[in-house]
Design brief:
The structure holds 2 protein chains of 2 kinds.
Chain A: H1 2-8, H2 11-25, E1 38-47, E2 53-60, E3 78-85, H3 88-96, E4 103-104, E5 110-113, H4 115-120, H5 122-131, E6 140-144, H6 149-154, H7 163-178, E7 184-185, H8 186-194, E8 201-206, E9 229-237, E10 240-246, H9 251-256, E11 263-269, E12 273-291, E13 294-311, H10 319-346, H11 354-361, H12 363-369, H13 373-378, E14 381-392, H14 400-407
Parallel strand pairs in A: 1-4, 1-5, 5-6, 6-8, 13-14
Antiparallel strand pairs in A: 1-2, 2-3, 6-7, 8-9, 9-10, 11-12, 12-13
Chain B: H1 12-23, E1 29-34, E2 42-47, H2 53-68, H3 80-91, E3 97-100, H4 103-111, E4 115-119, E5 125-128, H5 158-168, E6 174-181, E7 187-194, H6 200-211, H7 221-228, E8 240-242, H8 245-253, E9 257-261, E10 267-270, H9 282-285, H10 288-317, H11 325-335, H12 342-362, H13 368-385, H14 391-405, H15 410-448, E11 450-451, E12 454-455, H16 486-490
Antiparallel strand pairs in B: 1-2, 2-4, 3-5, 4-5, 6-7, 7-9, 8-10, 9-10, 11-12
The chains are: A alpha/beta, B alpha+beta.
């Protein structure tokens, strides 16, 4: 009887029925109620003294984040769960055992890797996150410095109640406003490591002072709570940490990759005078050639800046008066770049990407020198040209001190 | 006893008995008898309430009484035919006078409000047009309100309605064809079109469909509407109804066909395309830039009212990664402690809203306030505070509800109300994939639809460049190349 009934339907209807019935085969496979999962928002990876890995999974406690819910309680906005194992993966799933709700990874914002693991190699540590389809590849990676990775995630932060979130916005802010931080995503790191001719540099995070109470809410009751700070940059050769430098020294890397949006620079000029300039747009061009087995690296930097302050007596009347200032800023940037190249040459790590430039510019040479590039790079001759033009001196011309001298 | 429906050949008494048999002992059937000395007796019959008594008094009774004593024919009982003709041609001052001889005509004229004069033993009667049904005067439209534009609307009386259209299109090419439909209601309907603008094949289809309607009664234009639509079922309306004579006139000028039905202020317009449901008369009365924006807004709000609940459920339950972290956390916080799954929560709220809307229409005006208190306070606020539903869900449902009211045509709004639930469940079952799947099916469906042979998606597909000047946006009148004749040219 059913056969007869089916026979009476039109062909189109049958096709439609089959397709719509098929869609129900997938029914609710992915269905998760938002209040029955926990958002994993940050992960910290540490290496213990006995050689095992420790994973700290930071999940959000939503009702403590927003004040909108009626069931909102007192307490931190996040919860940290730890697991230990022989691999990163094992440590992670051990931490899952402690979670009251299944973790959901699409909102993972940051992975903090401890110095010890970074020295051992990033690729191993990131394998898990690269493979897991739920994790966004835009998740940022940062390295802890002088402090354990889990202590970074443990510290409660003001303004932004979720520490991982706060760390991310701190990193982005530093990169955008000061131009002295480099945050890379998982996919970028893996791509850069696998590419020849360029190496990775990542901003490092540290807790300024060793304090026990960073994980307490009382930390937030101070006007200057202890929270993680971006303190410098780790330089990698392939996927291993080789050296570290202080905060703003990362700037030439951003300039080299044309990633700098804005930065501040203070340069001395004439006698006991200083000028602080706001670099607005800085664009660079790299040139690499190899002649007689010696690479010649050239970097041309062009940029626009505005004067923020002039310390000392200075008359600023016309464009001519800007020239010494421009020159001093140029010198300062040049110095920074040269210093950076020297540092990377010392560790044979081509962080600025001159090797990559060679592969674009002279592919045939690159084919030949590819294998020996890092030792070759050490011997390279460098040449840096910087051309900064000052767009505006701000709302005044002469320095403040100058006017005072006039009136006296 | 079978009623004989033949010629009349009776005396007054027989005639009266016959009338009662046919019409029942009606209390509103009035029979005025005249006993004229030595002359032919006569009766005047009419049904009270549907005829104009003023006309009966001044143009029928008075002239007859004035001439009955002097007239030659009143003395000749056997020459009633001449008497009838004499009255018709020389005495009665009413505008419509006819001579009828069958019972069928007598009865149908009586029930439609005409007056019948019968002379004793005559084989014919005089039928005088005295139809007058009390009706509402022309008032402001109630369902299709405008800020700028004419303030009159159709009434229940078809003659008034056709006159409203005629007064707007004063051109001999406007055709208004009357006919009667409905076995028992004998409802007057009118087909309106402009001879030289209308597409002949569509007109033929419409006339044929109207002619073939077999139905007992027609009380509203929807009765006809369902006969005009193609047989395939679709939630999308393929005719357009309006209570505005200016909209009717405007559509006639575009080459469409209008249908008016006696007894309802809602006229039909066909053929109708999908985009017509998003146009209002005001679009043409306001500046083109603002009306274009408003039209886009209406389309946008229809899409919102259709998709919001489904997309919300799909995002929250299947694709939480697509929501920005802060928003996701905020939604999670609000859902903390809510006992129902998201889809059930939204479904319950949607159903509650539909109940409120339905109750709002039916509720007696006196207790209307109670309903709004229940709706707003108890259901809106109380349920959220009690933690049965999350406040973000009420926001979603409220947004959906308010955007469904921004759609000008009630009928397409109802389409959105039905399809919304399809999207809701597909979104809950298989996420955005389900939403896309449903959108595809609906897209296929409306691409297949046609209204009297005109593709439903017309100026979009098949694409017509020239027609785009009045589709999603409206160009200024000055720049519109073809103002009229849309349907014929586009097809």
């Amino acid at each position: 009887m059913v056969r007869d009934m089916i026979g009476t339907f039109s062909k189109g209807f049958k096709v439609l029925a089959i397709i719509s019935l098929c869609s129900f085969l997938a029914a609710c496979s992915d269905y998760k109620e938002v209040n029955q999962i926990s958002f994993a928002i940050g992960v910290a990876l540490d290496k213990e003294n006995d050689g095992t890995y420790k994973a700290t999974l930071q999940v959000v406690n939503p009702s403590n984040v927003t004040s909108a819910s009626s069931t909102g309680g007192q307490g931190p906005a996040i919860l940290n769960y730890q697991g230990q194992g022989r691999t990163v993966g094992e440590a992670m799933w051990k931490s899952f055992e402690k979670l009251p709700r299944p973790a959901s990874f699409p909102h993972l914002e940051i992975v903090v890797i401890s110095e010890a693991i970074a020295k051992e190699g990033l690729l191993n540590a990131l394998e898990l996150f690269d493979r897991e389809p739920d994790v966004r590849l835009s998740t940022a990676v940062t390295v802890s410095h002088n402090s354990s990775a889990c202590s970074i995630l443990n510290a409660l932060t003001p303004l932004n109640k979720i520490p991982s979130n706060s760390l991310i916005s701190n990193l982005e802010n530093i990169k955008k406003v000061a131009g002295t931080g480099q945050s890379l995503t998982i996919s970028q790191i893996i791509q850069y490591i696998k590419d020849d001719g360029q190496e990775v540099a990542i901003s490092t995070v540290a807790l300024p002072k060793k304090k026990k109470s960073t994980g307490d809410l009382s930390n937030l009751e101070k006007a200057s709570p202890t929270s993680p700070e971006i303190d410098g940059t780790a330089f990698f050769k392939e996927d291993k940490w080789v050296t570290w430098s202080k905060n703003h020294e990362i700037r030439p890397v951003l300039i080299a990759y044309n990633e700098m949006k804005s930065s501040y620079i203070t340069a001395p000029f004439e006698k006991h005078k200083f000028v602080t300039a706001h670099l607005l747009t800085v664009k660079s061009k790299k040139y690499t050639t190899v002649k007689d087995g010696i690479p010649y690296l050239k970097m041309n930097v062009k940029g626009i800046a505005e004067i923020e302050e002039i310390k000392g007596l200075y008359t600023l009347e016309n464009d001519k008066d800007l020239q010494p200032i421009e020159k001093s800023v140029e010198e300062e940037i040049k110095k920074e770049i040269k210093k950076m190249i020297a540092l990377t040459q010392k560790y044979q790590t081509d962080t600025l990407g001159f090797g990559k430039q060679l592969s674009f510019q002279h592919p045939s040479q690159w084919k030949y020198y590819r294998k020996s590039w890092s030792s070759l790079y050490q011997k390279a001759q460098t040449e840096v040209h910087v051309d900064i033009s000052i767009k505006t001196a701000g709302s005044r011309t002469h320095s403040n001190q100058f006017q005072r001298g006039e009136t006296q | 006893m079978a009623i004989q429906r033949g010629l009349i050949n009776e005396n007054i008494e027989q005639f009266k008995v016959h009338l009662e048999k046919e019409l029942g002992a009606n209390s509103d059937l009035l029979i005025r008898e005249f006993q004229l000395h030595n002359r032919v007796d006569l009766i005047i019959v009419y049904i009270d309430g549907i005829c104009d008594k003023q006309v009966i008094e001044t143009s029928i009774i008075k002239p007859i009484l004035e001439v009955c004593n002097d007239s030659f024919y009143f003395n000749e009982p056997n020459r009633t035919t001449e008497l009838n003709n004499y009255l018709k041609d020389q005495v009665l001052s009413a505008s419509e006078v006819e001579i009828a001889s069958t019972w069928d005509t007598i009865l149908s004229s009586l029930v439609s409000g005409n007056t019948v004069i019968f002379f004793n033993k005559s084989s014919e009667v005089l039928v005088i047009g005295t139809k007058s049904i009390d009706s509402r005067s022309i008032s402001e439209p109630t369902t299709q309100v405008l800020v700028r534009g004419p303030k009159d609307s159709f009434t229940e009386k078809i003659r008034t309605n056709s006159s409203l259209v005629r007064s707007r299109i004063q051109h001999p090419s406007l055709r208004i064809e009357f006919s009667k439909l409905g076995e028992r209601t004998q409802t007057d309907i009118a087909i309106l079109y402009i001879e030289d603008l209308v597409d002949a094949s569509i007109l033929k289809k419409v006339k044929e469909k109207v002619k073939n309607i077999k139905i007992d009664g027609i009380l509203e234009s929807r009765y006809i509407e369902s006969f005009l639509e193609d047989e395939t079922y679709s939630p999308f309306p393929r005719t357009f109804n309006t209570e505005r004579p200016d909209v009717m006139a405007g559509n006639l000028l575009e080459g469409r066909i209008g249908i008016l039905v006696n007894g309802t202020p809602f006229g039909l317009i066909c053929p109708t395309l999908l985009m017509d449901h998003f146009k209002t008369a005001e679009d043409y009365y306001e500046k083109s830039d603002i009306s274009s924006l408003m039209r886009l807004l209406r389309i946008f709000s229809f899409i919102i009212s259709l998709l919001t609940p489904g997309v919300y459920v799909a995002l929250v339950t299947h694709h939480i990664g697509m929501i920005p972290t802060n928003l996701a956390v905020s939604i999670a916080a609000q859902r903390e402690g809510v006992p129902f799954p998201t889809v059930v929560e939204i479904f319950l709220l949607e159903v509650t809203f539909e109940i409120l809307r339905e109750a709002g229409i039916r509720i007696p005006r006196a207790s209307g306030q109670a309903a709004s208190i229940v709706g707003a306070l108890i259901i809106g606020q109380g349920v959220v505070e009690a933690g049965f539903v999350s406040s973000v869900s009420t926001i979603i449902v409220a947004l959906t509800a308010i955007s469904s009211f921004a759609v000008p045509q009630y009928s397409i709004g109802a389409t959105g109300r039905i399809l919304r639930f399809v999207f809701l469940f597909m979104g809950a079952f298989i996420g955005l994939y389900g939403i896309m799947l449903s959108l595809f099916f609906i897209g296929f469906h409306i691409a297949k639809l046609n209204s009297f042979g005109v593709p439903y998606l017309l100026p979009v597909t098949p694409f017509n460049t020239a027609a785009q000047q009045d589709n999603f946006i409206r160009m200024p009148w000055r720049q519109m190349k073809r103002k009229n004749n849309k349907i014929r040219d586009e097809k």
